[in-house]
Amino acid sequence: TIADNDITDHLLKEFRFNQENKREQASRTMVFLAEYAADPLLNLLKDSQHRSERARILQLISDIGPAALPALTQRIEEGKPWFFMRNLVLLFGKVGNESHLDIVKPFLSFDDYRVQREVLNCIYSIGGNQRESIFSAILSDAGDQLKADAVGMLGAMECRAAVPMMIQILETKTLMTSKARNELEEKICNALGNLMAQEAIPCLVGVSEPKKGVLSKRNYSEKVQLAAHRALEKIRAGKVKGR
Predict the structure, then answer these.
(1) What DSSP letter does each residue of 72-123 carry, written as one string?
(2) Nearest alpha carbon to residue 188 among 144, 222, 241
(3) Domain ranges of the chain
(4) Which CA distances in Å does 83 have to 46, 79, 109, 125, 238?
């Protein structure tokens, strides 16, 4: 109704500008209004030019919780601009659950890496038992930058099932090196060391000492070689301790 809209507009105005020094009260009232406040807050989030204001909006919608999900679902299906999509995905990671993975997964192929990265964060937060398979699939078909992020998350999850795929990536010959490729290889070495992956020792030897190993025709950056050396030390130390 018009009266309801007037109340919401007044709350939003106080939330934004704190003219009556009642921003906290306005925020609590909008949390109480739940789904009725979610849509106007998302309008504001999309149009806001101030980072601090966007941060307050994100926190407020997070406080509203699952009641905001219908509005989030409707907005994310509209698509673009990238910065709004990233914030919507972030909110799904805050208030969603495993049942919302099918909504956010398509954005792994969004045309902006910053959105793709936020989708990974979201999946890590709400993905439950599906996280491992999703991140492993990324190692097969995503770009190096996103693969590196997935490797870090698989390592944090202590996912030993991903070790063979990580080794395969390290051993794969590439025609050109890049910053993203070097970061991917470095993260793989770190993950293999943290996972105490003894089956990776031959590969890591080849990376850390390419002239001696089976990967002598590959060129690895100094940082990657150092990461491989450290991973070997960690794995061998763990083996001595009987881990």
Answers:
(1) HHHHHHH---HHHHHHHHHHHHHH--GGGHHHHGGGGG-SSHHHHHHHHHHH
(2) 144
(3) 1-126, 161-243
(4) 8, 10, 15, 20, 44
193 phi and psi angles, rounded to 5 deg:
-65, -45
Which of 238, 148, 154, 133 is CA-nearest to residue 193?
238
pTM for the structure as a whole: 0.89
Same fold, 1-126 and 161-243: yes
User: What is the CATH code for 161-243?
Assistant: 1.25.10.10
Tokens of 210: 């390419």
Structure tokens at 211: 């002239």
CATH 1.10.3720.10 fits 1-126, yes or no: no
For range 51-71, the mean pLDDT = 97
Per-residue pLDDT band at 180 (split at 50, 70, 90) = very high
For residue 242, what pLDDT is reported?
52
